[in-house]
Design brief:
- The complex is a heterodimer of chains A (about 180) and B (about 190).
- Chain A has about 180 residues and is mainly α.
- Chain A has 7 helices and 2 strands.
- The radius of gyration of chain A is 37 Å and the shape is rod-shaped.
- Chain B has about 190 residues and is an all-alpha fold.
- In chain B, helix 3 packs across helix 5.
- Chain B is globular and about 55 Å long.
- Chains A and B meet through helix 1 and helix 2 of A and helix 3, helix 4, helix 6 and helix 9 of B.
């Protein structure tokens, strides 16, 4: 039985034309599927890029901090200069030097930069640790030449990741205590 | 199929270089690679599905799978059993699909084309004998008796134990013997 079936199996021959046609069909199918896959990948990439751009466009304006605005009415014409200049004049808001790229991590370069003036909060660690109310009280001691007492709260810091420098100034003018009217 | 790599090397090109070129998507290398297995694949599919058109569809699916799995192929012996495995699985899937769609196919049936396979009469006798077997029995019989594989190899291809393969073989032989005896009595 086995010999009979084996003989029939061996004598069965498939025409070369059929073999070639099947192979050709498989190759064409492969090419078609590869083309489709490439197209779908390109479309998916383009869509992902568009989505990323859209997300960036939506998120960027909300991350930019609002520009601090100085009250100019109570401090006179000198105070109405550019906000950066005004901030530089305030106590404890000295500009922080940028770390040079050329300097790398060698000690000399770092030492050089450490001699540069730092913000007051960094020079005096105790001051940095004080609560906000005390700092406000310290700043509020400075008084205007016009006789008005200024209450200022200055927060000057740099965002660690983006490097954006942020300055928040809370400024309040209060009238000098009047001599026993009430 | 056993001496596939030997035949290639005698032809002047090594197995590895053909494989490498086929991986890069070269048509000639693909043809050379498929040519090693196509006759066996098509014959196996033909006796598993008992229909030339279905066998061509199965073989096409097998060639596509071979091309996609080229990166995993390391040597010819592993490739041989892998090709048989995907052939059997593709034929099984195809028959399942055909069983699902067969009621609709009867509606659009056309006149059968002349069978281009040489020895179609012989094939019909063998196919008629194999038609009495279940799919697993048929696959076991074809791989074990006609491809002359060991039962452990067949078990690896079919994803079952060698004992199970021997069981399938035993029942297949029994059914075939009965069929052939009835044929002899008729003649």
């Amino acid at each position: 039985m086995k010999r009979f079936l084996k003989k029939e199996w061996d004598e069965t021959e498939i025409a070369p034309e059929i073999l070639w046609r099947t192979r050709n069909r498989a190759w064409q199918m492969l090419q078609k599927r590869q083309r489709q896959r490439r197209l779908s990948l390109a479309a998916a990439g383009a869509l992902a890029g568009l989505a990323a751009l859209l997300i960036l466009w939506i998120r960027t304006p909300s991350e930019v901090p609002p520009i601090p605005r100085l009250e100019t009415a109570s401090t006179g014409p000198q105070r109405s200069a550019r906000p950066e200049q005004a901030v530089a004049e305030l106590p404890g808001t000295a500009p922080r030097p940028e770390r040079s790229i050329e300097g790398g991590i060698d000690g000399a370069s770092i030492a050089h930069h450490s001699e540069a003036p730092k913000p007051a909060a960094l020079n005096d660690p105790e001051q940095a640790l004080r609560p906000a109310s005390q700092q406000e009280a310290l700043h509020s001691e400075s008084s205007d030449p016009t006789g008005q007492k200024l209450n200022r709260l200055v927060i000057n810091f740099r965002l660690p990741k983006s490097g954006v420098r942020m300055i928040w100034i809370k400024q309040r003018t209060s009238a000098p205590p009047s001599g026993g009217t009430g | 199929m056993k001496g596939a790599s030997v035949a290639l090397e005698q032809g002047g090109e090594s197995w590895n270089s053909i494989l490498e070129r086929a991986r890069q998507g070269e048509r000639q290398a693909f043809d050379a690679l498929i040519a090693l297995y196509e006759e066996q694949v098509l014959k196996t599919a033909l006796y598993l599905t008992r229909n030339l058109h279905d066998a061509q569809d199965v073989a096409q699916e097998v060639y596509i799978k071979i091309f996609r799995g080229l990166n995993r192929i390391e040597d010819t012996q592993k490739m041989r059993s892998w090709v048989h495995r995907i052939t059997v699985n593709a034929a099984r899937d195809h028959l399942r699909r055909r069983r699902f769609w067969s009621p609709l196919k009867g509606i659009f049936r056309t006149a059968p084309a002349p069978d281009p396979v040489h020895g179609a009469q012989l094939r019909n006798r063998l196919a008629a004998a194999l038609a009495r077997l279940s799919f697993n029995e048929r696959a076991c019989f074809i791989l074990s008796e006609l491809h002359e594989m060991e039962s452990c190899q067949v078990a690896e291809i079919l994803g079952c134990r060698a004992v199970t393969v021997r069981g399938y073989l035993h029942s297949a032989r029994k059914k075939l013997r009965q069929h052939l005896e009835s044929l002899r009595e008729e003649t």
